């Protein structure tokens, strides 16, 4: 599978911040926020397997790193294999989940654990680029896949 690329600009903020019935409000204290975010991230579904990111060891504690004073959250994730074709989609799902769950003042950084993916630099660059993330989420198919990764399993 190739990575879908969004074309054109536009504001996808509404797609990023769309309310999610499954997304609980995140507690205000840094310690409580950390535990809540760790729970949110680990329950994200893998796009290819019927398992969560935690079950596949894609995300592990200590994760995420919260700096309340600087309003930043940083999450490293480890793809299951060095050539994982879903790394960008997994990172995008983590980023969207956090953006939807955190107060707007937080800057969310999602990146691959150093040395764990063949295209680490390229994937990290895509995930750090606000315009690329917004463009990707304007792609209705890609947004649907991200939302499936974020939905609760029955």
UniProtKB/TrEMBL annotation:
Component of the CIA complex. Component of the MMXD complex, which includes CIAO1, ERCC2, CIAO2B, MMS19 and SLC25A5. Interacts with CIAO1, ERCC2 and MMS19; the interactions are direct. Interacts with KIF4A; the interaction facilitates the transfer of Fe-S clusters to KIF4A to ensure proper localization of KIF4A to the mitotic machinery. Interacts with CCDC117; the interaction is direct. It comes from Nothoprocta perdicaria (Chilean tinamou). InterPro entries: FSCA_dom_sf, MIP18, MIP18-like. The keyword DNA-binding does not apply. Transmembrane segments: none annotated. Residues 1-21 are annotated as: Disordered. Belongs to the MIP18 family. Residues 1-12 have a biased composition (Gly residues). Component of the cytosolic iron-sulfur protein assembly (CIA) complex, a multiprotein complex that mediates the incorporation of iron-sulfur cluster into extramitochondrial Fe/S proteins. As a CIA complex component and in collaboration with CIAO1 and MMS19, binds to and facilitates the assembly of most cytosolic-nuclear Fe/S proteins. As part of the mitotic spindle-associated MMXD complex it plays a role in chromosome segregation, probably by facilitating iron-sulfur cluster assembly into ERCC2/XPD. PANTHER family: CYTOSOLIC IRON-SULFUR ASSEMBLY COMPONENT 2B, CYTOSOLIC IRON-SULFUR ASSEMBLY COMPONENT 2B-RELATED. Coiled coil: none annotated. Keywords: Chromosome partition. GO terms for cellular component: cytosolic [4Fe-4S] assembly targeting complex. This is Cytosolic iron-sulfur assembly component 2B. Residues 41-111 form the MIP18 family-like domain. One of its GO terms (biological process) is chromosome segregation.
